[in-house]
UniProtKB/TrEMBL annotation:
<dbReference type="GO" id="GO:0045892">
    <property type="term" value="P:negative regulation of DNA-templated transcription"/>
</dbReference>
<dbReference type="InterPro" id="IPR013573">
    <property type="entry name" value="Tscrpt_reg_YcdC_C"/>
</dbReference>
<feature type="DNA-binding region" description="H-T-H motif">
    <location>
        <begin position="38"/>
        <end position="57"/>
    </location>
</feature>
<dbReference type="InterPro" id="IPR009057">
    <property type="entry name" value="Homeodomain-like_sf"/>
</dbReference>
<dbReference type="Pfam" id="PF08362">
    <property type="entry name" value="TetR_C_3"/>
</dbReference>
<dbReference type="InterPro" id="IPR036271">
    <property type="entry name" value="Tet_transcr_reg_TetR-rel_C_sf"/>
</dbReference>
<keyword id="KW-0238">DNA-binding</keyword>
<dbReference type="Pfam" id="PF00440">
    <property type="entry name" value="TetR_N"/>
</dbReference>
<protein>
    <submittedName>
        <fullName>TetR family transcriptional regulator</fullName>
    </submittedName>
</protein>
<dbReference type="InterPro" id="IPR050109">
    <property type="entry name" value="HTH-type_TetR-like_transc_reg"/>
</dbReference>
<dbReference type="InterPro" id="IPR001647">
    <property type="entry name" value="HTH_TetR"/>
</dbReference>
<feature type="domain" description="HTH tetR-type">
    <location>
        <begin position="15"/>
        <end position="75"/>
    </location>
</feature>
<dbReference type="GO" id="GO:0000976">
    <property type="term" value="F:transcription cis-regulatory region binding"/>
</dbReference>
<dbReference type="GO" id="GO:0003700">
    <property type="term" value="F:DNA-binding transcription factor activity"/>
</dbReference>
Amino acid sequence: MPAAEDTPKPSRIQRRNRKRILDAALEVFSQYGFRGATLDQIASEAGLSKPNILYYFSGKEEIHVTLLNALMDTWLDPLREIDPEGDPLEELLQYVHRKLDMSREFPRESRLFANEIIHGAPRMGPDLETVLKPLLEHSAAMIDGWVAEGRLAPVDPRHLIFSIWATTQHYADFDAQLQVLMEGKDVHDGASAYLDTLYRRLLTP
């Protein structure tokens, strides 16, 4: 039986155009959500025609799922990188600071994720069950172990992780509100010091 031909690798122009489309879609989806976004908006943002968009992707949903799949790995990497052999307090504070950094570096990605979850995770539901949940359980068990060893103050590990997500991603998801309340000042430096103090006091045995 003859071997199947290898799938040809995309050309440099094809890779560039896919990146343009995905970056444009990220901008549109982060502003309008999946329901409010249209292929026409994505095409306009990318500077490409709608038929050109459909050459690379079957439709709006495929673009959205492609972005979400890439985002999931980026979003979970800092949690995966917590070292069970490290100093518990410093490992968790580093996680807090990395998540805050991500809210500055990837605000559109944060809003894309938030919009998906707010609408019931119709496209990410399976990943939440098969990827996020096992990682959360592993991380919670690690934190429980640190608490049992007396290396952290008693804390519910799941609610700790939820609170870290809430207090860091707030700076991306509610940026428009913060710009008004903080009169356009960069709030991240102050947030970093505040969250460090907050979690250090909470977690120090």
